[in-house]
Fold this protein.
Amino acid sequence: MKAGMMHRAWFLRCGAAAAVAAPAGFALPASAAPRIVDITPQLLPLVGRDDAATVAAFRATILLPNRAVYHAVLGIPVEEVGDERIRRYLIALAPHAARMSTISGEVHASADALLAHFLQTFADLAYDRRIYVLPTLFRFDGATRQVGGRPTLMFGIDGLASFYRPGTLRFPVIFDHELFHIYHQQVLRPQLASFASWPELYLGLWAEGLATYVSQRMNPGTPDGVALLDESLGATGPRDVARLARRFLAEAGAGTASEAWFSGGHSSDPALPARAGYLLGLRAAQRIGGQAQLPDLARLYGTPLRTKIDEALHAIAEQTTPAPLQRLSRPVDSVVPARPCRCIAAALRRFVSTQSGPSCTSTYIVLREHDLSGRRQGANNKPWGSRCLKPRGFASALPPKSFVARRAQPDPERRSRTR
């Protein structure tokens, strides 16, 4: 999912194979088990070496025996892959060798259960169960490609090992995302003509947004950042998402939109995060999805779907968040309760639970300090200055950089002098 794609071609890549019956549990019969083609064992002995013999071995044992597959992966004939590109690639893989071996084993161990789980929701999936696990020259982590006229599920062992920090890879999420692309192509095949007039950008928004949404619902509790395979993208606040929606609508209407909305890596436009189309598509799918069954969402098409997407995007574009609380211009003169810290903590928890995005991250509450009887404390019975202190004991309930006033413990000696 790291690489961009042309989504009109995506909708046209619809093939059919023998249907697989939905299993009752999470175990597939041998005849329905995934057929994993794993090229990792041929790759690992070559990693980290850059001599001519190693480059020739990579070409002879990996590229040439899988000519059609790599034409689909790279978009060029394997004969056009230069020796220098292969040499640099093998050197760059060296830090990831151990992780590639581990991930390869995890794919083999989990594929049966993941496919069975998917079939419980999408029982009419028609797919020949081929799964390629292969080096992609860092093209992608997961993808679907046409090989021999049939849709094929592929996982880039190099992308899975290098695109994610240790401990952040959630393979079930990637698996469901990519396999849903194949299902989506299958069920929309009879309605392809209804998408002929759609702008390219809308096709990508729905295809990737719905696949991301499906992977999130198939794996309950998955945060947006995990479903999007980008933690920072998932943390984008509502105001920024609204800005992206307005830009999307403007570009789509003017016909100036580009594949940059779905491209991975570093974005050349500071105002357009990498893979922003995935984020906006997820937000639209979340609004459209609601309580709908996932197979029913996959079958939406034509004018009704376009209307739903437009309504969702306009709603996102118009959403706003409350302005942050401003620092008080003067202290509060009312009497603070006997346990002000707990009271303020409870009030702030209620406030934070109703907010989202960055609106809480600069909240300040300033209170004048009081003793338990409500009298102001200070030298000569004059009030202390107002202070804003970090919370204690309930900091985990508040967003980062939030602050809350906390009653300071009065000085016993000063207290005895002022009575």
User: Anything to note?
Assistant: The radius of gyration is 28 Å.
